[in-house]
Each structure stands twice: as C-alpha cells, then as structure tokens.
Write a structure and sequence with these properties.
Layout (H helix, E strand, L loop, with lengths): L4 H4 L5 E2 L2 E2 L3 E2 L2 E2 L3 H45 L5
Antiparallel strand pairs: 1-2, 3-4
C-alpha cells in the first residue's frame, strides 16, 4: 500500500488509500469552478429534457394527424385541396 502513488501524494487526508479532492495539507480548498460546472450540467440536462419532450409531443401530433387523415379518406374518399 505504501508503494501506491495515491498514498504519497500531496500530504492530504487519506481515505481508503486515496487523497480527498479539495484538501491539501489540512486546508480545504474552495473550487468555485466545480460549482459552476455542476450548475451548467444541471441546466443543460434540463434543456435536453425539454428537447426530448418536444420531440415526443411532435411525433404524437403527427401520428394523430395521420390517423385523422387516414380515417377521413376512408370515409369520404381522397380529397384534393
């Protein structure tokens, strides 16, 4: 275990053979970048949810429109607009 590189690094707090992130020499370091990154990733995930939701709604509308048109054409025959 002493030969492990994570055991020798930075003099930070060792938990299960690994140095905890953000701690060095007993002083906790603030990493503002990771907070901004987390917010950005969460915001982007929300955008993806809206995107997928829009695609599903669009597909459903097209399907309903196709069924309505098909039924209309079966009953009244094809029409020219």
């Amino acid at each position: 275990m002493e030969g492990c590189p994570s055991f020798r690094s930075c003099g930070g707090e060792i938990v299960s053979g690994k140095v905890q992130r953000g701690q060095r020499d007993g002083v906790e370091l603030k990493s503002w970048g990771s907070e901004a990154k987390a917010k950005r990733l969460k915001r982007n995930a929300g955008y993806r949810v809206y995107s997928v939701e829009t695609k599903v709604k669009s597909c459903f509308r097209k399907g309903v429109r196709w069924v309505k048109t098909r039924c209309f054409n079966l009953i009244f025959g094809p029409t020219k607009y």
